[in-house]
Amino acid sequence: MKFNTKTIHGGQKPDPAYGAVMPPIYQTTTYVQTAPGEHKGYAYSRSHNPTRSALENALASIENGNFGLAFGSGLAAIDAILKLLKSGDEVISTNDLYGGTYRLFTKIFEGFGIKFHFVGMENVSNIENYVNANTKLIWVETPTNPMLNIIDIKAAAGIAKKHDILLAVDNTFATPYLQQPLDLGADIVMHSATKYLGGHSDVVMGALVVKDKDIADKLYFIQNASGAICGPQDSFLVLRGIKTLHVRMQRHCENGKAIATYLAKHSKVENVYWPGFENHPNHDIAKTQMRDFGGMVSFTTKGNNYDEAIKLVGKLKVFILAESLGGVESLAGHPASMTHASIPKEDREKTGVVDSLIRLSVGIEDATDLIADLEQALG
Ligand SMILES: Cc1ncc(COP(=O)(O)O)c(C=O)c1O
Questions:
Q1: Which residue's CA is the closest to the ligand 1 atom numbered 14?
Q2: Residue 42 annotated in active site
Q3: Is residue 195 annotated as part of the catalytic site, yes or no?
Q4: Catalytic site includes residue 102
Q5: CB distance 96 to ligand 1 below 6 Å
Q6: pLDDT more than 90, % of the chain
Q7: What pLDDT score was predicted for residue 377?
Q8: Cys-Cys with 6: which of 10, 160, 314, 373 at CB 3.0–4.6 Å?
């Protein structure tokens, strides 16, 4: 099956009870047993739930993996990966990553004796400088949030394989429509399904997909033992979201390109960060590992003024000023006062999160309306 068919049919079959084409929302805690331990594969909904199973099968299919796992949030999914490790283990992570992931690594797992190295991965050979006998995991996010840096997944996988280290890729920004990290050699692909997979800003969820049965078994054990699962209603919503992922992503990419091109020509705009530009530092890698360049665009304005940036996002009428991304509606955010406000100015500026940086999640509205909105706000 091609990707655009897999989003609709991959891993799916009509519900065995009555032939429902969409899996019913099995809103149940438990399942009848004909004798102790004798049931139809479902005993208790933390361990398994038919609606969640339908979603997990779809997730595995669209990421070209063999096993899918759904969690209560993206961070719960990352938490499960980190629980594969033990005290004394080391992780090499990209230094430009979602702030919540950084917080989980440093404020929770460092306290349990796991050591993290945050490394610039635009040049993946940097990773090798931090590998030692304790290194157990490489953490890649590409494109990165909010600077849209690109990391070479295949090259990172080469280093991971050479040293027998797990490679996990946060594929939230790209989605499997744009890139499939397992095919490029990653061991685990992770999603905040809250974003493009759900696609309608109505659910918070996380997902993992793997090819290898041993890793899958360990993760299923953690999913059940730690219990950070999602409910059947949310599973249904994300399953429905996935069915239109390819058409939404196509429009996100078209609109993202239109907005990035418009901003790059605007006299008040200083820099535009979008991997589709030929002068993006890792444009060639993006072109090789991604099918298109996505709907996330960040930019700075001339003068780099904090108050001006806040005024600008306040003037937007079609773009909604809000956290999150990946929904059908266009969203704008000001990282310095929102997502990255807790990071000291000198530290956030090191990765490019300057006072005037604005991050856009370009939705699937008419591009001319989106451009007109930016035009009136830029003034
Ligand atoms: C790239 C990335 N990874 C992980 C997460 C965390 O996901 P969630 O908010 O679903 O816990 C986010 C959330 O914004 C994200 O943008």
A1: 324
A2: no
A3: yes
A4: no
A5: no
A6: 95
A7: 98
A8: 10
